[in-house]
Amino acid sequence: MSSQLQHPMLPSASHDEDARQSFVRSFKIHLFGEITPGNRQVYDGEVKPKYKREHNREPETRREIWKEMLQNPYYQMYSSLKRTQQELMWDSSGTTTRRTYDGLRKKASKIRSAKKKLGSVRTDPNLEIPRYNALVDIHIMPGGYHTDDAHDDIFAGAWYDHAVYSYATGALGPKNDDMGHTVAKYVKDNYPDFKPKRILDMGCAAGQSTLAYCEAFPDAEVYAIDLGAPMIRYAHARAEGLGESVHFSQQSAEHTDFSDGYFDLIVSHIMFHETSNKAVPNILRETHRLLSKGGRMVHSEVPAFFKYNTDPFNQIGLEWEAHFNAEPFMPTLYAMDMVEKSEAAGFKKGSVKDTFASSGKNEDSGQITINWYLLDGEK
Ligand SMILES: C[S@@+](CC[C@H](N)C(=O)[O-])C[C@H]1O[C@@H](n2cnc3c(N)ncnc32)[C@H](O)[C@@H]1O
Known about the structure:
By secondary structure, this protein is α/β, with parallel strands linked by helices. The chain has 13 helices and eight strands. The protein has one domain (1-379): Vaccinia Virus protein VP39 (Rossmann fold, 3-Layer(aba) Sandwich). It has an eight-stranded mixed β-sheet with strand order 1-4-3-2-5-6-8-7, with helices on both faces. The model has no long low-confidence stretch (mean pLDDT 95). The site of S-adenosylmethionine (SAM) has 23 residues, from strand 3.
């Protein structure tokens, strides 16, 4: 496994903290490799035959098997271990973030007030945080993305940057930027003549994927937005620390203050599954409004859409996320037809497709390859 890149804004773990965080990552790898496969045996050997006996047919939807799986002692053990592992991940990375926080906050403030900056940052104290973000501590991160305690608060951003490396067990690379590199490579490989002048990353969080676009399109201006003020402040300091120029602002992707046609390329990475039924069409409409003529959107997501995963057993993982990992919108998003939604939002019929692409920059690093879902459309 690679190590997380120690950049100037990253909470730096002590020896003992690092040992604990390594254990938490190994625990997750063990859970995936050794415990999770047993769920398939539970389903094939017990839950599915029982359902067939009682209904004279095989189960067709995740909802038909979810309650029965939950009754099973093996699934209960798996579920309990998985939830515990997630709590330990936030707990162990939170210790380091809290211990190093004062220094990081001062460093970020200094970067923000420096005369010479590469990019920029603006927050909006009047932004109304939508309920889907404000009412849920998504993936049980205490306080969520948006909790903002002071004008210079960067806590959520620092914690997220540090923790997500463990969350992904290192699979997103030393800078956690595999999704960004995958999308950037996809665009360059498939549209070699497309040279975006302005790029927008929606739902950028700590700006990990965002920086991949600075590398891939060095002549473009890169912008990034997120709902969380501490995310945006941290993402800016992180980008400057890594020597990259990005214009960050705290805005909702549902309605931004950029003018019509301002961007040539609009991207997002695992943002949609943390929104809502109402937000998805709003964000797609806003994407359409913000794109220049001939501009392109490539929104990326976890490859879990149900149209590609018709086996109910493969879908219950999302039900688990909704019930036990505070990801309430996941199953609803993955049941949607995003091409249809894009066309309803203004994209011409035939101009949008969904497809897959796998790891760009990190493909040779020995990490697992993730085949990301992409919603690719031209205005
Ligand atoms: C899983 S994180 C994204 C990770 C990030 N894109 C990356 O590649 O590392 C989801 C992010 O989407 C943001 N988000 C959710 N709804 C949003 C909206 N309507 N507008 C802007 N950001 C939003 C959340 O605040 C959160 O930071």
